[in-house]
What does this fold into?
Amino acid sequence: MMTDQFVFEDITQTLNSRDVPTITLWNRLEGCPRTTDLTRALRAEARDALWMLTRQWQMGEFRGDDTGTPVMGRIHTSVMRIDKYRPNDHAVEKFEDNVPIEVKVESRAINFSSADRILSLDIRLLMGRQWLKLVGKIGDYKKEFIARYPIQPPDPGRVEDAHLCSHPEVWQSFAAAAGRLMDGASLYFYLKGDPARRAYDGIAVAPAHENEIDRQASRFMEWFEGLYYQPQQADAWDPSRLEYRFACSTPTAQGEKVYTADEYYQGRLDWYNFDIDKQSNGLGEIPGTMAPKVSEVTQSLIPTPIVYTGAPNTRWWTFEDRQANFGGITPDTTDLAKLLLIEFGLVYANDWFLITHKATEDSITRIEGLAVTNSFGERFWIEAAGSGSEENWQRWGMFSTSIKGQPNKKTDSGLLLLPTVPKIQEGRPIEEVILIRDEVANMVWAIEKIIPAPTGAGKPGSEAANETRDYYSRGTQADQANALMPIEDNTKIRYEVMGAAPENWIPFIPVRVESDNRQIKLQRAALPRILSSRSTGAGKPEKIRPRTTLLREGLDRNPASGYFIHEEEIPLAGLRVRQSFQRTRWRDGRVFVWLAVRKQTGRGGPGPGGLAFDRIVEVKV
It folds into this structure.
């Protein structure tokens, strides 16, 4: 006979109040092996589809929102090829896709002369040896070409040869090459100056050899231009900013899309150096060329799950490969990267899929959208995640190019893929300049730490300055006899009108910008070289000019012009600018060698200079 002792009207209230004792039971499912052989069990055979659905229902998978798995994807893209290039503010050129863009942008002309002074002796002799090797297969014209394009011996009695004779190693190199080796650069520039010129002009050669010499002359010029890459028209270096400035453009349905790089100096060129200039109407037309068209491509691809080594597999019958111990990760509360990795592996591992798309170099690829079909036959149209406003701080995107000067604009989702190289070898600097601020004198000093020696190698600027000053100080015997004799007394101090800064310290003084009362620029100035020797010329001081091409901007022009640097480009920490040869190998196996400039913040050089006025100094015995 049943009793009403355990009959309750409200079972929930009874359990919460614990009025009667209860017993809690748990059930679990576990396998019961029927044999000691595990071979068949490890196969994880699935014979009953209803049982699989039951397991999914038991694990709560039907309540999830990610039950569908992508099985097919169709990606629609538009591709625009880069077709124009403009270095700095010069004329627009055709974009060359067969040359690395670092070489195209960074290359500067090799300086073979400065102020009618010969430089780069090593390359001149290399070119001369190559030409004599080529012409030696035709006939014995070695002496004739050496006499026609000679290396002049330095004369210590000429003021014009002071840059050679003041440095012993340079003097020795030029004296050893004079009369023995050929100046190949003189022949090269002679042939490039006029296509009608011939290499044997002024040389008596056999008429039967003239055609062969012309053919070898063409090979000679191709050899040098393949050995050292030289800018065809103008380079992208902006001396007023001490940076590279250039722009590229691609055609669009509305006209052109212009990508500008106004502050490139790092030595690693990629998409992040560019900004989209929507205010520009284009770079201009190139005569004789046709603009490429925008091509649209639609591809069907199969999505692939994203996995990494050691990630836990979402399929219960797959064992770990033990290549990485995922359980051994012990992150701290501040290790966000490790926490995200764990969360991805444990929670969202089956939510990320990869669709590969092949993009071409020197192009801008824009993904218009992605149509995804999942395992239930549903189709979704997906656009880029970071396609919102440019100023939206919650927007997330990778490899997107910023829009120049226009806030609150829709983000451009085009992927800029440039013809770059993965690695560049850099040689020793042949020029290095350190720019520091002198707050006491309210000016900037440009210290030539390394100058290009006439032999072609870099030489310490302080050493070259001391040797040059010593050379001018010696003068001739007549200059030494006419020099003022020192006063012999017991004076321990003397009055100095102006002190002397090292000759490798070039001053830059602040000047006002035209039509602006507040903005200033830094103008290159010069210190006088005051010596009672042949170099001064009747007591007139000579201006000390810089010896690096980085600071000689405008001096070698006819007529000469001044050099100005924007004042905001020189930080308080100083600036270091160096010029050296770079080398890389292109995708087709060709080797490119070019001359480039690098810039970095920080002085790391000598301290303040010795320029001062109206001082009482101690007389050194």
Observations:
- The chain has a mean pLDDT of 84.
- The two ends are 132 Å apart (CA to CA).
- The chain is about 20% helix and 25% strand.
